[in-house]
Amino acid sequence: MSEPAPRAPRRALHAIRQGARRVDTATPASRDRAVDALRALAILGVVLGHWLVTALVADDGALHTASPLQHMPWLAPISWAFQTLAVFFLVGGHVAIRSHASARARGVPYGTWLRTRLTRLLRPALALLTLWTVAATALLLTGTAFDTLHTLVKLALSPLWFLLVFAALTAATPLLTRLNPLWPLAVVLHVDVLRFGLHTGPSWLAWVNLAAGWLVPYTLGAAWTRGELETRRAAWVLLLGGTTATAALVRWAGYPASMVGVPGAAISNLNPPTLAAVTFGLAQCGLALLLRDRLRGAMRRPLAWAAVALVNLSAMTIFLWHQTALMATTALALLAGRLPGLHTLPDGLGWVAARLLWLPVFTVVLALCWTAFRSREQGTHRRSGRTGRRRSRVVRVHRTADGEAARVGRRV
User: Cβ distance 214 to 89 under 8 Å?
Assistant: First the structure.
């Protein structure tokens, strides 16, 4: 006979709390949990931001991209809250510099260190490329309109640009250990002066900012590792200075208020990064540094820490597949007709309200993608133990999104 329904949720909650306590207990006391919390917030911010501002409009049998920011530019603050890539690069630089120094101290060759870190980044990307190669071929053979196919593939593979930049900066980590963030900031400034002020220079010049722009928060992470950003004063300088500079650039220099690209806009702050995006990133990094103590306090709660550990364990899987989750939901739901918040033009608050209702559905589909592809990021581990004893699947190894590994659990 099945147990009473009210007891089942209580037992499930008790099991979750027990697992969280095991993860909490097994985490080394020396681990800075604020770093993992910032990484998790950065990844989830990007995912939620994309889900809120990316629309696939069904029109004449085809899908094309649109954004509520096109029709409601006053929603630009959404991009301020959820365009959090600078924080990810800040944390990535901080951890990579620290990891490389530790590897050198242990005598680990640079090639071994780099291969270990890049494997965790690139292995899940291979799964994404493989699936979408097969899917694109199948869609093309079944007569899908080329415009629709182009839209889907472009969105699905758009996270890869970030991965390539991050991998390149990781490879260059030994050269960036002492680089002052002002140098790449100066490069971004000069490129934008040539682009928007003097209107000179070749068209490819703008793409110099793809590296220089993200070098700024990455090298800020290196400065954090060197102990140069430990004071609250340094964090306040970044926050206030970055905020003031960004506001001035938007108000008087003609930069867009949105910190993400808007379809049809003449200038995108993100593709490639502009000076406004970089100064906005400085403000975000300052805020992140100010929140470190609060996050360390919050991460003392086992449930909160276990949730952060889970996100970090699958950060690349979540990041790479979140657009696929959105598109899969949109394509399947189209069988039921054009649905508000999913296939309709994002031109009013009604669309916004409907899109908020779709977020749980996107989350469920992303969870299915996570279930199917998480092994590509986490790898497979041999299970050893005594014969006849069943091993529970408590997380044994917490590998962060940039390849660092630390034990946060054990098998029981």
Answer: yes
